[in-house]
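Action item from last week, closing it out:
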Amino acid sequence: MSNRTAFVTGGAQGIGQGIATTLGAHGFKVAVVDLNIEAAQATAKAISDAGGTAIAVPAAVTDTGSVQAAVKTVTDELGPVEVAVNNAGWDDFMKFVDTTEEFWDRILDINFKGALRVTHAVVPGMIERGFGRVINIGSDAGRVGSSLEAVYSGAKGGIIAFTKTLAREVATKGVTANTVCPGPTDTPALRKFADSSGQDADKVIGGMTRAVPMKRLALPEDVAAAVAFFASDAAGYVTGQTLSVSGGLTMA
């Protein structure tokens, strides 16, 4: 159990909700940070109703001022941010040749620079206090590529490289940095993609499932378990690592 403060971006729904709920169950004080404040409040309430401590905090990871304001709110209400989970993300599926620079900018601003903004805001305090955990949610798309996700794959590949470099820079300061890379995960976002793919949604999900050696999609709590490990005091000698939670879909 822990009484440390965790800052989870995109924490209201999907994988982020699973992470926030799991950290709450492990005794972390959880800031559910999300653009969708109503959903964030519902997730925070569920954590509190289960005996945990959580608050909902509105923030846009694409806005430095918004991120800084969220960090201040969390620090004032829960204490200094000791665990930062950069989970907020967005993607759309299309061939690279059909993408535009506007699309590239949005993908990079949310999925890459969003993590940079949060990390830049919280790591100095972690260094000063001599303890910190930065956990970035990457993707197996950033490790092995993924059709129709070229720019997203590039952004997540950047997250993996950034995390390793950050880990080297703060290794002597009591701060670790690691990446969790989910494979296909059963979330509302995945279901929305399947529904809008122009194919039978059940067939799309079925094809994804058959590709996984364990023959099931990940659940948010599967990803959350890896995050909880990296967030724990027990992981103090683990840094710069990239862990896939994919049911064996990727093994390299």
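Closing note: The longest strand covers residues 175-182.
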